[in-house]
## 1
Amino acid sequence: MIRSFKPILVLATASLSLSACVAAINNTSYAPRAGEAPSAERVVSATAAPTRSPGKAKNVILLISDGIGFNGWLAADYYQGKAGAQSYQVVRPDGTRPVVLGMAHSSLNLVDEEGRLLPSASDVELATGAVEQGYDPRTRWERFENTFAGDFAPEAKSYTTYTDSAAAGTALMTGRKTANGRINMDWSANERFRTIAQVAMDRGRAAGAISSVMASHATPAAAIAHNVSRNNYDEIFNEMVASDLNVIMGGGHPLYDASGRPKNPEKERDYRYVGGSETLGALTSAAGLNGFAFIDAKEDFEALAAGANVPERVVGIARTGSTLQAGREDLLDVDTPSGMAFNPGVPDLPTMALGALNVLNRDEDGFFLMIEGGAIDWMGHANNMPRYIEEQVDFNATVDAVIAWVEANSSWEETLVIITSDHECGGIWGEGTFTNSAGGPIAVERTPEALTAARFNPAEDTFNGFLAVQDRGKGNMPGYQFASGNHTNELVPLWAIGIGSERFAQFTRTDTRARALWGEPYRWNGDFVDNTSVFQVMEMALRE
């Protein structure tokens, strides 16, 4: 039963200004970096002039690298030796230029009847309204901890400096702001928002959501589900399989642990990520559930990616109890960033993406697909840079696979691809940004105490100046520090390729300090948009 609430306060934030026109392409030449092919022309302007008139997209693909900002993105790109040269960062062979922007992602804070911010764990019954956190480039750079002030007293009394994945996913998928924890519902849980997947299906297209974490986790859930709490995994998954989605894929298999080893579930709670034991039983039965084919074996994902026996609808739950790879333990020592072998029993995210594309492409009218690299965020919380980079490298490979699929099976004249994040996690900065009173820039031991001590504390540590992560060569860890173990309000990158991508230009603002830090590697001019504009651009692209 939905409770009644007091009237909502007017949001205390100004709307984003609209640009009067699209900026012209800056044709400044550049010298290729070491190891970069001379023909790999990189993007040189954030809001490139359109190469075609805005029109209707047959397909829209949204790729979300969960929990990564500019510094984290650069860290992985430097490790790969591909900063500014990833497939989505260069001009495509047909001349299509990606648009590169920053993106703000603030959520709503609950307030009491006197307008005071409520702590994040407060009973919602105490709230009489909600106000937007916002992102203001004029004040963001006044002190180092401005984007993660919630880590410290007295700011710790509220959650006024970050969004979570539920609120951020809601904004991306619906164009509406909400409070942390909500999935496609307003802060009071009285109003359900319509998602871009629902819009696509209303307009005759197929739709799907896949992730490297649990299929019912906040970001994939935001593609279609509606819930008062992101933690109601069983309810969320059951809404997903009851919907008209054609593809649902992720981890969270109750019969396997995080390293892919079989296990015996002991409680009904062990089945929560797949809707409960009854739902899993129905999915795996001979009769199936709601017309879905069910797969969980790695070879079945690979066959689907190869185009074999492609069904109209599929639920794929990889054989891992949580993430595809980030949670693995006790495997062989090998030459990976983390030094541990990968779980051999699960597909990678590129394989899942190609399988999903093959299913959705059966619909001749087109599709919407959301793809999440979900465990980047988990490794940001853990301040684990080697595994953070592993997850982002897998995400980059997924974007490569998607772009190759578009150029082989569709075109940029009919497909829009957007690559971004939902928020930043970990407060990643270049080494030397602050001097830690407890020791060096990073924790030597991976104990909770050591990790906490290595993070920034304004009462104990010295801020030296904003530094981007440092490039130390391909295959080497970049120079970095983790300032936080939580989410921050830092800008994240956004790239858009294909039909309708130029529409972002009408929503831009500019952050010159951010441009000074991160502009050069990505040829970014400091323009940024709010996360709600992602929905707006996708919705316009899908109009009939």
## 2
Amino acid sequence: MKIKRTMLLISAAALLMPCTAAVDAAQGAADESAEGSKAVFDENTRAQYVIYADREGISISPYIFGICDNDSMYGLYPSAIKQADVALSAYNWESNYTDTGIPEPANDYSLVSNYAPSQRNTPGLCTHSLMTHADRYDVGLRFATLQMMGRVAADANGKTDMEYDRHRWLDVHLIKNDIYTTRPDTTDGSVYSDEYVAYLVNYYGEAADGGVTGYFLDRAPDEWSTVFPNAGLNRLAPEKLARDSSRLASAIKTIDSTAMVLGPSLSTLSACVDLGNKEAWERTAEGSDYTWFIDFYLEHMKKSSEKYGARLLDALDVHYYTEALDPMGNMVRFSTDDTANAYRMQAVRTLWDSDYTENGYSALHYKQFTPFLPMLKAAVMMNYPGTPISVSEYDFGGGMNMSGAIAEIDALGTFAKEEIYLACLAPAEDYEFQKAALRMFTDYDGERSQFGDELLKTKGGDEYGSLWCAARDDGRLTAIVTSQNLEKLKDISIDIRSPKQYYVESAYCIDPDNAQIRRQDAELFNDETHSAAFTADTLSAYMLVFAEKPAEGSADATESEVSAGETETTVPDETTARETAAETGAQTKLQPGEESGTEEAVTAVTEVTQEPAETTAQTTVPAVEASLLYPRETAETDETVTKTDTDDEGFPQVPAFIKVITTMLAACASFLTVWVGIRRM
């Protein structure tokens, strides 16, 4: 029954959210006692943080720093790249025709417009473009999008009409049931999705050998009938999407067992609830105990996998474009005034914060399914355990504003904290500040230095600032600190709880005037009473790199004092990088069909800060750690307290029974909140 399912879902969500929070709160009670009034904020102009470097952290998937394929990725080192365009659902891979969809549907070559007309008869040119970009920017994971909508463009003759142009579309079949050809038959009146996979595997090799890493089962299926009104489609039924997903997934795995399959790539939180077809979903859910469409989809893919004999869904994929509105009803994602900037930086909280409700359609109408990421994790745990979560398209806007950088930093930190497997930013045309935020995690010093692979527990901050900290393999700690205050400076102090002593070895910040990452004088951040202390500017983001203090009197101690005071004015900007590339003769790799004379090919830059590595004919896909692809099914993430009376600093330890009571109360509160919401529906 629905009531039973709802209770199960709430119980699972309670395990992931309030119960974990209650245990953390109980575990940190001694620390709260130690901090006392230090955790109190004075009008958001003071923030005091604690980094628990003495506790086990969370493994960070390296693939959350991905990007959706675009022509302005210069200066980035993304870990994953995927195709992302509305027109992909109508893409005819055999001829490269597509339809642009609303507001002015037209058949054209828009997905391959960067190629000369004489080159556009190359099948799958859109994916050739993806692979070219992946090689150029040294991206290991490459994801193509397959067509499941059922209709693709039959020509490139411009504007289409719903009543008279039905003949300008071709049917798409998932399975060919015939011999695959190296060059598809463009005269048979049909297009086959599995033959597309076979073509790409024949051309690039299997995923394990450097070919296409994986395939998305189309994109935004909840929008097909509205985005492509001239294709003659009906609104999609839940059973059809689930059935087609398992059929195409099994075909992919049969052709390339090493390739990943990701779906259903729904466009919004509300689509996750009812697939954008409320009437059909209610019929599907009637008499069942499904709470939302995600439950149904996961259960179907699990059963199909068992029948096939291998996993058919390697990641549950969704999109997340913020729907937040400002008080005047304007979409925050496309606004840049101070009000929109403030709401943009808060909008990330819908992903993780149960105490926050944004002013947006999905969040207001489906509050019981927020915070979004923990609810997805609960659904996975109940219906298809071990399935990683992907957010393959997301955007909070503000690409040319410092607020966009701060929102992007918090989004990436949230993906790390919620153990998301894959995430790809889908930026608007200009996104220099979002680029800077990505570089904070992947290339903050211009030498490919990265954030780290283990997210550490922290405490402190409020909705007007955040701290994300990671441990690196070289023993250093990195901390990214943000301040969302639009008007006042903010005093920030950071204490690191660890048997080791740390100091700020180097520091960086995003310049709010030009979106460049600039190096700061590390001595300005070191403090006698804290691990770090400084005054943050309005709307700012800082990267601090902590190194262990050597023993007093050692040679390393003297050397560290000198290095801590070294100052550089800026990380090399794009102009410097281009000049360096020209001097070293940096070249790019071109895929078939691409003109070598394009400006982008001439100026594209490879690694310029290290010695060039030996190259091979194909780029090898990084081995995916089993612990990342299929998370452990043990409860190792919950921290435990073993001391009975006092903690390691001599403060009273919270009795165990209080923690149990706190946990139970939190779970009950979560249950009542969601139950009341459902009763009101």
## 3
Amino acid sequence: MTLDRRYWLWDMLLLLALAGLLRLHGLGALSFYYDEAENALVARTYLQTGHFELPSGKSEPNGLLYKWLTAEMFRFFGESEWSARVPAALFGILTTLWIYLWSSHWFGSWTGRAAGFLFAVWPWTVTWGRIGRFYGLQQFLFVLMVVSAWKILECNCLGHPMAEPPKVSGRKPGLALRLLRLAPLAGWIALSLLASATTVLAVSFLPAYLLMRLAWCWRRGKSQDCEFGRSLRYFLSGAAASVATLTLLWVLNPDAVYAGFGLLKLPYSPGYYALFLRENFGLAFLALALAGTVMAWRKGRPGWMVLCAAWAPILVHSLLVPHYRDRFIYHAFAFVLILAALPLGWALEALKDFFNVRLSLRARPTWRDALAVAVLAVAAQSVIQNVLLAECGTAAVVRGSRKTLAREVADWRGLAAIFNADPGVQTKEGARTEASGSRSRSTLVSADAIPTAYYLRLPDFMYPDVDPKGMEFHPHTATPILKDATAMNRILDSTGEVWVVGTRRKFEAASRSASGARLWNRLMEESSEIWQGQHEVLFHRRR
């Protein structure tokens, strides 16, 4: 590697300490949000029954590897938010290490330091490193997948020259033996598919890179180039493997394949992810990433690999699968940060040369020095804004803010404490609660089925107008869904104790219609107890 061995160990230790502090501090302070509660609920079911199932009995294969890790953490350390989130934090710390080492190997030690620092402190990476879901694991495996592809295709050869494949006993190895070298890559892809099904689209970096190699080889020496044939064989072999995999998936689970192709019918918004990056991280960050893209293009094969790993999955998600969610491109975000670190690493190197050489010679600053200062100023502004000042910045997330780039987090533990409170315990509004034994006989209506099932109990009904129209039962809990406000009013008019619980966001969405607004007003006026937080609401009606 190109790291300065006098300093690289200290760089690595400092980066790991910084990444660990930001991801592990107060890790179990917040309640689960919806997807975390689903992950924990499946892990709980696995420990009880040996099956990865939701309360409805439906299997949930997506994110299976992280669910298994969560279950094992629950087995050895007890069931808690901390136990569910520690694996994500550890994968975030390890990914910081890989980003630092490989960025240094590809582009030099200063770029590696910049990339490692950005990954350690950036709000999106810190946020997903503090959430008990599979995204941190998926990103870690994606980095290993890219590194494996690099080692297989390039044998760590840097720059433009492309050598012939190694010879065995004076002859080129056979095609089968050369394809066997892809086994490590296939293993990482298989693990990534167990981590998340969206890895199918993440693998698009590899054909994009092979096409870039083919174009470069054709331009350099037409089809006579020694690397052209090898790249073409890898490309065709990958295409055949992809077709075989899709065929196997269709045979095993045709409904899932049909659902995937059904996403192609959604309306397109090609600029969605570019707009997400600009709105959440600012123009300065986007400018650094685009400048880094140009620099990566000019740096040859390592730059091409990083460029394809960063942008190919994002382009595929933007142009081919118009089912847009911010977390769908998270696995590629580490390489976007490497691109943003390229101009920053160049500027740091330029300033180091200025202070070590030019300043000692009393030479005047050049345009290169001025440009380096400008790049550092832009980078500093972006880091300060995103890490320290933004509402969803790193500082806010680490301090325990319940509004993050991933999702707003409701205080479900607070809601559970009220719902299961012992006699004489006062709520925030000063009302005293009854014995928790009556809760099993009360009617529980929820706007958020999974967190309710995890923290309170399985709800009896789903609040109207918070789930897609036409569904009679919630698919994850098999809870009956109230069709309209009239059905909810009948429950409120019945005798007995009724609890209504959910996130404020869901209630506000349901209240946009006239009937939904009237139902909300009735709950506000007639409930005997109301507990409202920043992101959560609980109503208690006792007749």
## 4
Amino acid sequence: MFGFLLFVFGLVEAIVSGNPRIRWFAATSLGLTITLLSRPVLQYVVLGVLALMAAAYAAWRIGALKDTAPHVKVIFRRATYALLLALVLPLLVIAKNGIYFGSWSIGTGAGAGLYYGVHPLHMGEEPYYTNFQYDVGHTASTINPATRGNLEIEADRWQKQIAVHMITQTSFLDNLRFFASKARAWLLYSPVENHFDPEWREKRQLQVILLCAGIGLLCQTALFRGRRAVVEIFEQLIPAPHARSGSCPVAWTPSDQAKGMIFCCVALVLLTGGMIAQFLPILYNARYNGAFLDPLFVILGSVALAMLTRHVRLLFAGNEAGQGNLRNLRKWPRAAGQIAFLVLLLFVHRAAGDWALRHERLSLDPHRLGPAAVVLNGDAFGPARVSGMEARGDNRWVTRDYLSELAIQVNIPRGLSLSRESVYEAIWRVRLQMRGDIPSACRDVAVSYSQPDSPTSTLPPRVFLSRDGEMHSYALSAGQSMRPRESGELIFKFTCPAGIEIHWGGAELLRSTLAEASRELVLHGSAFSPYQPHEPRLPDKKQP
């Protein structure tokens, strides 16, 4: 984070202040070098920026960009040199790795990031969030038992190959939904984090709302009052001259400084969007979100808040005599309007947060779990035991009490081991139907197993049921407290009002075979499908 903040601070300070001193560009170059060598998350963004700067330079040379101030050219030229200088050491590291190790990259790890980032069982997020394991080492050792770790160069290449194959074998619409959910996570933090640490989501959501409101204000101003009015808004944000230290070697008018602020804000918005786009195919984790996106959203959200409260600020700003303007009645209506608008934004923020807590979940796609094999089919599931429900026949019950329970008997054949050594990753797939006037709390169903391999799970196992009245399949991890140690009961606990109809449609226990399928892909080029075409079913009824 230090290198990234140093990079952003140096560029913003040089551009906004109009003070192209070497120290700001040196800070920019040093910060970018540190960032690229520690976490090469800006490598593609930097290449895109350099391409845009080359296009701008070419436009200047042919005269397409006229009336450009010499001072702006100095900033542009020094910024270009700073970016190029920042690439020298990373390029030397890449050359060294390519010559000595045959890997033309700064380091390994990108393959694991891509592997986890598109892994259907993990939903592209930390396996911690779905109670699965970090299986990339297991996959690499399955491909070649001599592999000493997933960070080996050869293993890194395998992981990239597997990730690309999973993307290409997934339909366009499923990829679209999958990466849209990841974009939401990068933008607003993961739904899982929203439930166990909602402060992260609350802060980011408020920043996003302020940013959207600020962009809307600028678009409205430009549309109805012209571009000059947009510059005037930023001029009102410039601090008083005595509040700044140092002096600018070149005359930098408030209008020039406001245009510099506009340029920096647009650049930071594009940088934020570019980083989110670059993060989409890699593993989502809160560390990257907090270290690389939080600083950008804090800056942009603060600027947006300053724009939305500029009339309130002007009421309390000092005039030439050092006195406030509280008696200026002409400014009160606009200030009151801005305060009312901010109160409205707070209501929107609260409503959006409440909606997210009720409706947003990180749920597995029961029909796209990666290659898997059936361990227990429908015949292993016996009769149901219910509590707080009344039977309606044909595996249907109606809730009577607010707290009710449905427990399905699970019969594990003698000699079948479901331990981690035998079944590395296991998945429960169940079919349930819910009908009635269903509140949000009723949809969130806690799941447990009566004879688990482990007493606890990282996060409480749950399924989030649909309330469209149709039978649906649902999937969740069968690891930790959901991994069967022996025959027992699969238990669903409902918090529903009386009169909700629950229909049980069957279940199965799957074993992920991604490691074996990846071995066949890498060694023999055999493609695999991430889809499960069949559905869990009820046990076959025995004929009398």
